[in-house]
Amino acid sequence: MLLGAAASGVLFSASLAVPFIGFVAGFLAAVPICYTRLEGGRKTALLATAVAALLVGIGFNPLAGLWFLAQCGLIGLLLPELALRGMSGSRALLWTTAAASAVSVMVAFVMAATTGQNLLTIAQQEISTGMAQALKLYEQQQGLSPQDLETIKQGLQTIAATLLRILPALGTLNLLLVASISLLFLRRMAEQRGLALSLEPFQHFRVPEILIWPLIAAGFSLLATTTLITTPALNVAAVLAVLYFFQGLAVLLTMIGRTSYVGVLKVMLIAVLLLQPYLAPVVAFIGIFDLWGDFRTPRTKQEENL
Questions:
Q1: Which CATH number fits domain 1-118+168-199: 3.40.50, 1.10.1760, 3.20.20, 3.40.190?
Q2: pTM, two decimal places
Q3: Which pLDDT belongs to residue 302?
């Protein structure tokens, strides 16, 4: 219990206090709670989560401890709980992310009511500061004309406005990444302990078929002329697009796994996606059409043994 509480509290604290390195530490903060749940049981994990939240609250402020509970604490408790109850990895991941997102929204309202500040205002300040620093770096470079600087400034303003519009989606995707990393560690820990959990490999990742309808509705809603409709639609589309990108990536990795050049093709796939990020929508479309094509099911015995 003490080990899980200390490790999780330190990792989350690092995400708040240490630049760059802390950003990575925040994605790992739920893993010690998952470990405690597997090793010590539900009560021990609950106690470790409470102690970690208390440590974060003492080190920073009570709201920081509440954020820990709403995000890393909830993910660390719920993800192994659903897996131990026989839920598949894909469904456990989606339900955990949805629960953490809902609780985070409630914490945001509590924060706004108690401090008079909301996340939108804080995020706007952080984004404005970041864009101002980026613009300052461009201004220090030689060879840029005033027209170039003005174009860069307008581009940064557009990026800032877009980031502010999709802030809910960015928060949800952040929780999705925390839950995904925790799921990878949970699967490895379960294998080491011989636990029979239904945590399928990433190649089997599949988005529930019903989510295609919100994606279609969000796509048509983006054609509206009012931001009251387009902003929520943009956030829904952004989250679902990432989920279908994961499914498309799982499809490609499954096909690569049927070849004799698995390692080389995996490296090539990662390199192409990093160097040519505009191909990411193509991967997402593969994930969407997998609903009808079912690309991961071998059609012939020859393809199965390829």
A1: 1.10.1760
A2: 0.84
A3: 46
